């Protein structure tokens, strides 16, 4: 069974969530029944800076299909001009189970998101 914390799953969830975001600075909104909340934390010091954005996603469905996940985007930089020395994006399933999240994602996936097909070997011509 594939993990849900991979880059493709994160990208799909972000596209669904941000597709209905009413404004870049909005802190909460709903997209396809998914409750979305965003918090941003920033610090700029003399020698470094960091930004952390936390996107909390709560599926409004009842158990056993209920799930909640956090997507965290970290960015660390130093110097002038700004040089990024760490950029990480990760996801944590806070409650519910991976199967419920996967099932919801399959029902709500946007049409322009393509899952890579299995590569088929070319037929040999004799």
The overall average pLDDT, rounded, is 83
Residue runs with pLDDT of under 50 for 5 or more positions? 114-126
Classification by helices and strands: alpha+beta
- The order of strands across the largest sheet is 1-2-3-4-5
Number of separate strands? 5
Please indicate the count of domains.
1
Shape: elongated
Q: Main β-sheet: number of strands, strand sense, barrel status? A: 5 strands, antiparallel
Distance between the termini: 38 Å
- Helical residue percent? 10-25%
Cα gyration radius (Å): 18 Å
Helix tally? 2
Reading the helices and strands in chain order gives HEEEEEH
Can you characterise this structure?
The chain has one domain. The termini are far apart. It has a 5-stranded antiparallel β-sheet. It has helices spanning 7-19, 98-108, and strands spanning 28-31, 34-44, 48-59, 68-78, 83-95. The protein is α+β, with helices and mostly antiparallel strands and 126 residues long. The chain is elongated and about 50 Å long. Helices cover 19% and strands 40% of the residues. Mean pLDDT is 83; it is low at 114-126.
């Amino acid at each position: 069974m594939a993990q849900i914390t991979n880059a493709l799953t994160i990208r799909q969830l972000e596209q669904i969530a941000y597709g209905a975001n009413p404004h870049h600075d909005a802190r909460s909104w709903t997209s396809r029944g998914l409750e979305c909340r965003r918090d941003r934390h920033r610090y700029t010091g003399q020698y470094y800076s960091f930004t952390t954005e936390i996107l909390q996603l709560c599926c409004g469905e009842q158990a056993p299909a209920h799930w909640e996940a956090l997507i965290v985007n970290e960015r660390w930089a130093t110097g002038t001009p700004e040089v990024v020395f760490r950029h990480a994006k990760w996801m944590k399933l806070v409650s519910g189970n991976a199967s419920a999240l996967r099932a919801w994602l399959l029902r709500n996936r946007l049409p322009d998101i393509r899952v890579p097909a299995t590569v088929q070997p070319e037929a040999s011509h004799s």
